[in-house]
Design brief:
The protein has two domains: 6-242, 3-Layer(aba) Sandwich (Aspartate Aminotransferase, domain 2), CATH 3.40.640.10; 245-414, Aspartate Aminotransferase, domain 1, CATH 3.90.1150. The chain is globular, with a radius of gyration of 24 Å. Helix content is 38%, strand content 13%. It is α/β, with parallel strands linked by helices. α2 (37-50) runs parallel beside α7 (231-262), α3 crosses α6 (200-209) and α7 packs parallel to α10 (356-385). β5 (124-128), α5 (139-149) and β6 (152-156) form a beta-alpha-beta unit. The chain binds pyridoxal-5'-phosphate. Pyridoxal-5'-phosphate (PLP) binds at residues 60-62, 84-85, 87-88, 130, 156, 158-159, 180, 182, 193.
């Protein structure tokens, strides 16, 4: 057991010394919220950084999602994925909308566009895909279907900060994209969220809605909510932006190290990131297959017993939760790919402060059951070999290539600056 646990994530924090002068400014000007100066600066800075036209900050991603459906006046049924964090579907329920679950793609773990059309009914008004783990959903195909059926597309882009595909921000896909800026995300404002939209009029409606619906002092244009981000959170965001590139680079380095160290391990599937995607390393899921010597839950416990707290994102499936499982679309036999992913997934620790030694320990711990199984098989084989001729015994030598765990190479070790 390690003396210091390794958790699945650890938030990035700006230097406290840089935060204090910003707090002093807030204390001086007494503007704490309601579209204050830091809030305005952060909205502009994020538009610039992310390469989007308009962005409206929120107190968190869930309030942003809830407001997104109100902003586009979505009604009836919304097609979505069961393989996500609960807030994806909960935000529909809070709008009296009915989630209709559609299975996911086995490679991207995102909503499978081939299954969307059969789920469309006269009540369908929108599609709510998720860019799970920061890997983009099939935005082109989803848009094609939305255009044919006149549906809105709202992306839950909680994991997709900084992700680009074909050199455009993935946040520009669909009608709206919603970010989470929660402590666990690649860019955090402690708590926070944002809606990205394409025109000033929509941004204005969103801004009214996040401030109770106030259009001016005496006009309330809709039953809005209080979704505003405070000045303290916005100030944190401005400081975090200074180091976000560094954080993203470090995440990608860690992901490469995992790939290298786990490459020879039979029974672990990793994410397949297309060359056209500039990924953000938000999560590092592995899918524990039948050929691995223990199942996902046993591996999860095995890691915990060594002080490594990997997480089963996303298990259980949203569609298996009590408030959703009665829906016809939640039936497990309709969602076989999502069911399998939920049973196999384990997200490994990934955050900028994770050191090379930490990663090596996580990988050693993952590989140890495999090595034990191989040693056991080898011992059995050696016992049997005693009764066989010398040629067969030679073939069971411990130097067989598949029994050797890939050693670290030099280039990987050089990446460790922790
Ligand atoms: C896919 C997804 N959607 C929505 C949310 C909700 O965001 P927040 O925690 O900022 O409310 C999260 C947060 O973890 C998420 O992972």
């Amino acid at each position: 057991m390690r003396d210091k646990p390794i958790y699945v994530t650890q938030p990035v924090l700006p230097p406290l010394a840089e935060f204090v002068p910003l707090l002093e400014q807030i204390w001086d000007n007494k503007v704490l919220t309601n579209n204050g100066p830091f809030h305005q600066q952060l909205e502009a800075a994020l538009c610039e950084y992310l390469g989007v036209e308009h962005l409206s900050l929120f107190a968190n991603g869930t309030l942003a999602l809830m407001t997104a459906f109100k902003a586009l006046r979505i009604t009836g049924e919304v097609i979505t994925t069961p393989y996500s964090f609960v807030a994806t579907s909960h935000s529909l329920i809070w709008n009296n909308l009915k989630p209709v679950f559609v299975d996911i793609d086995p490679v991207t773990f995102n909503l499978d566009p081939r299954r969307i059309e059969e789920a469309i009914t006269p009540q369908t008004t929108a599609i709510l895909p998720v860019h799970c783990y920061g890997l983009p959903a099939n935005t082109a195909e989803i848009q094609r279907i939305a255009d044919v059926y006149g549906l809105k597309v709202i992306y839950d882009a909680a994991h997709a900060f900084g992700v680009r595909q074909a050199d455009d921000s993935v946040l520009n896909a669909g009608d709206l994209s919603v970010l989470s800026l929660h402590a666990t995300k690649v860019f955090n404002t402690f708590e926070g969220g944002a809606i990205v939209c394409k025109d000033a009029k929509t941004k204005q409606r969103i801004d009214y809605l996040k401030n109770f619906g106030f259009a001016d002092e005496v006009t309330v244009m809709a039953p809005g909510i209080n979704g505003k981000m405070s000045e303290i959170n916005a100030a944190v965001g401005l400081l975090q932006l200074k180091t976000v590139d560094e954080s993203l680079t470090r995440r990608l380095e860690i992901a490469s190290m995992y790939r290298e160290l786990l490459a020879g391990v039979d029974g672990l599937q990793m994410l397949d990131i297309p060359d056209t995607v500039q990924w953000n390393g938000a999560y590092f899921p592995v899918f524990v297959k039948d050929t691995f010597p223990m199942n996902r839950d046993a591996l999860y416990q095995h890691l915990r017993s060594h002080g490594i707290y990997a997480r089963r994102y996303f298990y259980p499936l949203i569609s298996d939760m009590p408030m959703y499982r009665g829906l016809p679309s939640a039936s497990p036999d309709r969602l076989p790919v999502a069911q399998q992913a939920a049973a196999e997934v384990l997200c490994l620790p990934i955050y900028p402060a994770l050191t090379f030694k930490d990663i090596e320990q996580v990988c050693d711990c993952i590989v140890s059951p495999l090595k034990a199984a191989q040693m056991h098989a080898l011992e059995l084989a050696e016992h049997e070999a005693e009764d066989l001729d010398a040629e067969i015994a030679l073939d069971l030598s411990p130097n067989r290539p598949e029994l050797v765990f890939h050693p670290l190479n030099k280039s990987t070790s050089e990446l460790d600056r922790g």
